[in-house]
Write a structure and sequence with these properties.
The chain is mostly helical. Helix content is about 65%, strand content about 0%. It is built from 16 helices and no strands.
């Protein structure tokens, strides 16, 4: 996502449709910030400091609630295969903060044995923060059967979950041309009808990522749809995201079309 519009604004997420009466009691006293915002998406950290943190965190995961949360925060940032058998059971903890943090940690430390439980959480967990975390984490499991569950979340869940389901579909659709077409079809629809601008923007970002994997017919459909959004969407940030994606596509025809629209005074 580009720095100015595709990048998610923490305050905007806080205002999305999540029931404050239910979630505040469960989470506000324990959760400061969103672990997703703290995750470093680079590769393995082999520094001595990281190794020491992981050693401590492995021990914390075997202790009580507060210690487990400390350990989970470490594995939201660092990768260590030794954590996997300790993280998976925490997906079933009654505390939503622990479930959510374990989900993030298993996005940072993907484990095939976690897929079935993660899919169940996305579909049935009563806590929107947990489902949101799961929608993000499943983007790191593109070789697993996550495409349809993410599409269903983008269609039906609350805005915070739809937001991350849209982003994860860029990964889930990238492994085959067939999956790219399936993901793109839903992203195109949501880009046009979703009520939340940040969700529409994330759909556009994902479509830009999938463009190279689409056949020519889907590419033409996508380009036409992006131009319509660029000209007609009511939200400036969504129009801006559409323009950024169009300008980044390696297509002389697209660049010529943008130039024509600018010459005609339809674009600034």
């Amino acid at each position: 996502m580009n720095d100015e519009s595709g990048q998610l604004d923490q305050q905007a997420l806080a205002n999305l449709a999540i029931d404050p009466e239910v979630l505040a009691k469960e989470l506000a006293a324990e959760l400061v910030g969103d672990p997703l915002d703290e995750i470093d998406l680079d590769g393995f950290d082999t520094s001595s400091d990281a190794a020491k943190e992981c050693e401590l965190a492995l021990n914390w995961l075997k202790q009580g609630h507060e210690q487990r949360l400390q350990g989970l925060r470490v594995f939201c940032e660092h990768r260590d295969p030794r954590a996997l058998p300790l993280l998976i059971p925490l997906l079933q903890e009654p505390c939503p903060v622990e479930r959510m943090s374990a989900v993030y940690a298993l996005g940072r430390n993907p484990c095939p044995r976690a897929v079935e439980i993660l899919l169940k959480l996305l579909q049935t967990d009563s806590n929107a923060y947990v489902r949101k975390a799961t929608a993000w984490s499943l983007g790191n499991y593109a070789d697993a059967p996550v495409l349809v569950p993410l599409i269903n979340a983008l269609r039906n869940d609350v805005a915070a979950v739809r937001l991350w389901a849209a982003g994860s579909l860029a990964e889930a659709g990238s492994n085959t041309p067939q999956n790219a077409a399936i993901a793109a079809n839903q992203l195109l629809l949501s880009m046009q009808i979703d009520s939340e601008p940040v969700v529409r923007s994330n759909c556009i970002w994902s479509l830009g990522r999938l463009f190279i994997d689409l056949d020519e017919a889907h590419k033409r459909e996508l380009l036409d749809a992006l131009v319509k959004v660029l000209l007609n969407d009511s939200e400036p940030s969504v129009r801006y995201e559409s323009r950024v994606v169009l300008e980044q596509l390696d297509s002389p025809d697209v660049h010529e079309r943008l130039k024509s629209l600018t010459d005609e005074g339809l674009l600034p």
